[in-house]
Amino acid sequence: MTRFHYASRLGTWLAGSTALATLALAMPAMAQDAPPAAPATAAPAQPAAGEIVVTGSRIVSSGFSAPTPTQVLSAAAIAKNAQPNIFTTIAQLPSLQGSTGATTGTNSTSSGTQGLSSFSLRGLGTIRTLTLLDGQRVVGANVTGVPDISQFPQLLIQRVDVVTGGASASYGSDAVGGVVNFVTDKHFEGFKANAQSGVTTYGDDGQYLFQAAAGKSFMDGRLHVEVSGEYDHENGVPAGGFGEEAPGGRDWYNTATLLNHGVTSDGSPQYTYAEHAQAYQYTKYGLITAGPLQGIAFDKNGNPFNFVYGSNGTPAKNAAGTVTGCANFCTGGDLSGNVGIGTSLQSRLQRIDGYGRIGFDLDPDNEIYTTVNVARVRTSNQPNPGMARSGITLQCDNPFVPDVIQQDCAAAGITQFQYGVSNAILPNIRVSPTRTQYRFVGGADGRFNVLGSDWHYDAYYEFGENITDIKVSNMTLVSRYNAAIQAIDLDGQTVCANAVARANGCVPINIIGGAPLTAAQLAYIQPKNGPFQHTRQTQNAASLSFSGEPLKLPAGPLSVAFGGEYRREFYHVTADPYGNGVSDESPYDDAYPADPVLSTAGANWYAGNYHNGRGVYNVKEAFIELNAPLFDSRAIGKANLNVAGRWTDYSTSGTVYTWKIGGTWDTPISGLRLRAVTSRDVRAPNLSELFAAPVSVNVPNIFDPFNGKTVNVSQNTVGNPNLKPEIARNTEAGFTLSRPSWLPGFSFSFDYYRIKIKGAISSLSAQDQINYCNAGVTQLCGSFFLDSPDNTGNYVNIQPFNLASIFTDGFDIEASYQWAQPLGLPGRFSIRALATNVRNYITNTGLPGAIPIQQAGVNTGATPKWKLLGTESYDTDTFSVTFTQRWFSDGTFGNQYIVCQTDCPVSTNNNPTINYNKMKGAFYFDLGASYNVTKMWQFYMKVDNLFNRSPTASPQTNTGVDINPQLYDVLGRMYRVGIRYNF
């Protein structure tokens, strides 16, 4: 398709959207006067005049400064970024690394995280970042316990506070990397709405968003009611298909791969970087992969031809299927059977959200309230095309084998041959999760006086329920497929060779060539009722906390906060019997009739073998936090000491204690504040880690170092009820310079952070378990089997454990400058830059023989050495123009590699040799503008990735998608236009 065609499609699409808007505004300058931070607990109904509410602490006290760094994004800043999901705006902050969203996890069938928007601070993963709504827990949208930001009431968000440090002592489990707290506007008055649409420069991922909110007070302001609703539809970006043809005409996909030559003796590296890699175990329409006929492929019409391997590869025609000149892959040649780009670049997403809040003031200082949040998010993605299979044994007398190949078999003296095929004749797999959330909160907050001292209180009870249904269509039953491809001639008819399968409806299929399957053939191997999982997850949470100033000290009041919390987490999952196995608990047996060809133990699907499971735990907590002013004088400044402790009792793992100690010093130097804090933080194992329903997924192209070949395996993931909480030590120290007298519009901060996690819960990949066993870690050798002759019995069992450790440190820098009436012009010019440097991100599996792995600067992961966000904005009463820069630094494929060309040292599992180990970073430039037509109407437009920067290849050791959507923009240039109304 030509570029002219794309431009035409884009022009037509945008022309239809001009009713929404004509101008746009980019990522917020975020250099506006930062609003005072708020506590994770709800603020009093009517705070006292001049009261400052601070995030990062439970202390509510005038003039108090928390030692924990906090970044704040206002509603105006969020609106200026013009994203259909507030998640995207927050995730652009440099301290957030490894967050998940609609472009991640699209190659997955069984994870259940497709389209799940959740934050990760410091690259520690979404499970180590605590996300709150008005300081309150939110029921998880996945059994890992992480919420889906798509289900939050986004139009009523007043601001978002990001606490970039450990906060378990203040807020409880999971706050190892930090806290993201969404604060709603609880007393919104009036009506506002937003309509927006967007499309990429390639004419895909069409989006439209509608939002509205209304609020009104009654009974002389004592009763306040507000509601909001929104609908968001994002088409996503479909898969490209086979070969290297990326969707929409994108031209950057090149099947980048690391070729594994094994441990060499000639001084050459074990791994070499290559592009245009070709798997030689299968092709689009079939390939004989071993024996005397090796190298014969078939075209769409089933005609044989000599396959072009690339790399000057020559089939050895032996039983092992060796291809001389190729490593684990060839390069070049016939690439038509590659399946990597057949993964959706972005999930299709539809979200509907409704929210309501009713608050009633008992008196001017006390409020009772209730909130209701009902939301549904539907996503859909394609994990891969067809169903790549290798190691298939076909009989020479199979009626579907062409006559010329049957003759070649006879001449070679063989009766069967090994075969591999991408199965392009099969419909593409489609995974469709639906997450529905019901969340209800009732609470009270306010103040009261005891012995002349004002005390604040906050109490709430929350019940949340999330229902997740995952439906998979076009999925193959492997046993039926294996039976259907083995055909014989019986009384002049082509039938399935297996008599039992034949008696139970087996319909033979031809996997040689590209002849389309009939409805009967598809119905047999891919029944209408595919893999299915239904999960009900509930959360009950109750909290009561107090904050006050019971004593007056020479330097100011002693502030204290204390309280208790209770939480119960529960989940129950049921799955289809073909995946789970026959169970008295399954309500789906009638839709999945018994078949003797299938295993009653389950794991019958090619992928998506969900299993039944359930789990529950509860946690009881009590905490106290103190802030003691140390001194306050004009000569030496003002300082405070902040300490907190928390007792936590988990029903599954017993009692743990967390604490923090820190302080701030406002020095006599104008605007200069020093701050430091250290804390002991915890993350308890979640429901998935403890009680995961076993999940089986087929993983192709696993390298078997024992036999020097690639194999298919069934990867089985199970929970571990004996897990203990992770223990983390978190330290931060830095300074802020805020509007000094010598430069009133300037602000600057610098903070060093250091996090060490012991007993980290983690599991190895299937490939790592095999590699470690091969390297001598015998404890893992019983966790897999790779010697199945037909590739159907290979498996790897994966289970989480508490042996790992994580260490990361680095620093955050933030600078901003505001200039009113620049050069005598009306309005204001603002500039802001935020940067995060990751000095170290070291993981250690804790296994014997394993060494620490440095992941800082590994751009195939989530922790580049540097990540920066910069904005420049010029705002007037009539219009605004904003420029945004997003950048991260160059990196490597992996820091474990030793780079060499010749005379390489002996390659080891811990430190393999490689010929090239560089992965370029990326720079993205966004542009936006807005125009206020009236005081109530605003038109805006936004262009993300203005220069259409393509992603850098992220080479794999298989033919998966060679891009990293956690770091790189995989969509390309995106246009958005919209209109806002505010009355």
Automatic annotation (TrEMBL):
What are the record keywords, sorted?
Cell outer membrane, Membrane, Receptor, Signal, TonB box, Transmembrane, Transmembrane beta strand, Transport
Q: Which InterPro entries match?
A: Beta-barrel_TonB, Beta-barrel_TonB_sf, Plug_dom, Plug_dom_sf, TonB-dep_rcpt-like
Q: Is Amino-acid biosynthesis among the key words of this record?
A: no
> Where would you say this protein principally sits, based on its record?
membrane
**Pfam families in the cross-refs:** Plug, TonB_dep_Rec_b-barrel
Q: Where in the cell is it found?
A: Cell outer membrane
TonB-dependent receptor plug domain location is 65-179
Signal peptide (from-to): 1-31
Name all TonB-dependent receptor-like beta-barrel domain ranges: 447-946
Instruction: State the annotated membrane topology for this chain.
Output: Multi-pass membrane protein
Q: Which PROSITE patterns match?
A: TONB_DEPENDENT_REC_3 (PS52016)
Q: Which PANTHER family match?
A: PTHR47234, SECRETIN_TONB SHORT N-TERMINAL DOMAIN-CONTAINING PROTEIN (PTHR47234:SF3)
Assigned protein family: Belongs to the TonB-dependent receptor family.
User: What name does this protein carry?
Assistant: TonB-dependent receptor
